[in-house]
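Researcher: I've been going back and forth with a colleague about how Leucine-rich repeat-containing protein 41 might be arranged in three dimensions. Neither of us has a model we trust, so I'd like an independent prediction. The organism is Atlantisia rogersi, in case that matters for your notes. Sequence below.
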Amino acid sequence: QNITCWRKKFLETFFSNVLHGVLDVSSDWRLNDHHFSPLLHSSPHVSQLTLCNMLQGAVELTAEHNQKVLENLAGSLRVLKFQHLLSSDRSIRRSLVLLLHRLIHHGSVSQVSMYSWPVPDTVLLVLILSMSAGFWRLGNAIMYHGSPCGLCREQDKAQSQESAQERADRGGCDERDWSDGENQKGPPRAPELNGCRAGACLNSVLSGPVSQNQACVEASSEVPCKHTTIQGGSSCCASDQLSHQPVLRKTRRRLKSAVGKKRRCLRRSRGPYADPEDLYDFVFTVAREDDSGLLDKSSTTEGERAENWTSSSPRSLCAGHAGCKKRGGSAGIFSLKAAHRFRSVSTLELFSIPLTGDTCRTLSNLLSSWVTLENLVLSYNGLGANIFCILSGLRALSRHPDCQLRVVRLSDMFSHMPCMELVRCILSAFPQLHTLSVSFDLKNQLEGNRPEGNPSCSEAEITESCLEQLEIRFPREPLHTAALLPVLKASKSLQQLSLDSATLPCAPELGLLLKALREHNPNLKKLSFHDVNLAEHQKEVLLLLQDPVLQEITFSFCRLFESSTAEFLSEIINTVKKNSSLKSLKLPGNRLGNHRLVALADIFSEDSSSSLCQLDVSSNCIKPDGLLEFTKRLEGHIQQRGGRIQFTHLRLFQNWLDQDAETAQEALRRLKAVCSVVNDSWDSSQAFADYISVM
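Model: Here is an independent structure prediction for Leucine-rich repeat-containing protein 41. You can compare it with whatever you and your colleague have in mind.
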């Protein structure tokens, strides 16, 4: 992971472990203090949160004593994830409604991701999807411990004043009077069906009773809320602004500690991560404190420990309030036709969650007016023929002038329409897309049996697009350049192209593709082939390596050397040596072996003009003695060049380095003095046994 701030990473992990019970606060005398709230202390640092199983975390965060914690999360949290969810009862759904309303509708969450839900609870799934899209049932206020949501009240008040002013300005009123956002001129209607009609069963679920769970409102007279944009904007309450700072306000007089010392007031003006009593500082300066005897348990009494904790640990006041009791109520899902629109997220990701026909129709309805959606990822959802329903919603969305969709990634086990047809269908509707990824493992034998009213997209006209990255994984389909050509012609800005698991129907096909790329995609920087048999296309491989524009080329499991001669390897090396634009060459899974790896070191010889920085030789049957010989030859070339070399990264995953650990360690030690080496502790014998077992 690319960790930019370890303090934030530590406190975010600490928050998650406390919330989910991984870290038992009561078992640590330093943390088990009624004056200190671990969740409150670390919440301003949390930008990503995962809720699992029975959503216990949602119940805890919406409890009355964690009111301030939720306020902090509303300002800091950007990514909300759900993983391995189970069915929930109404009380848990009530807590989830409160959480989503505060973090999405009046918070800063911009991404909702759901993972691994083999048998999804339809009510719970639709609830999360709908609230992520910004919907809540019109006329049913969210209740926090007996009071309506203060942010909604302020928002409604601001809207009423704005509407009154508009009526006064034009001497009348019309439909626009109930606009729900400053930057939105018309009311965001609940989405229409767009060719997909939800079944009666789902309608009965959607029109069920609304959550009436209640929780106290944090809104106080001294921190007024300000109205901001609802669609695509974020709440900017004064309390939210304060929550961005990792500080804890002193709201009541602190009781004297056991040793009579007063806690020092934390100063907000010092900025983020500056407080000397921060938990991170406390944990990672323990060694220094141990040296001074502060935490030496053998020489301190309980009273001294309390004193030491008072002076050297983070403190915060609990945010709990006495008062309102929870009222009873029921939780259910609302009807989209009777819904109010709030702020929505910009990224939706669904991984390994089966979507039924009814759920797909609901998702299609939501997508049809989800104008703030920028990134959509649907992965292994068992869509089947329901892909046409999703496409219907996307086409409706594309007709909105404010549509912001820029990234679409669709992957599944079976394809229900040809990959190139799906690509053309999406790209013709969304020429503004920057990234499009379509991936299928297997071809559906029923492909082509499309529902009525869903015409073929194979002839869809594609206007000039903004596409920069295109990834296609074919389910063993033939790669016909003629089908790909309209996409390439329309994508003048294309910078990355990845073709996976395609078959080449005839020998000239790859040459036609390379010609089309040279003619229509002058800005192409990265080209990747994975699991495409290039054993008989040596001429085209060399042409690619000569390209003066490409900066990264990947031939992954392409059987490059299956039927090649030694001359082919020499030609590859000489070609790369002359290419000063190529920065990264990835050759995983091509059976290089020891002798070919050693030869590749000549790319960096004294007479080379190569600018190659990264080399990937993973899964290439490389043994420790071959790696050591490669290292020695590379060291010789570096010495000849006076130490001037641009080579910085070598990837060695899944090679046979475990066959001689001592030699492998010596080779790796010497290599790491030259470049950054990334490898793993792969068990080659077990991998071979697994290979034999599935033959």
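Researcher: What would you highlight for our discussion?
Model: I'd start with this: The domain at 528-694 is CATH 3.80.10.10 (Leucine-rich repeat, LRR (right-handed beta-alpha superhelix)). After that, consider the following. The chain has 23 helices and 19 strands.
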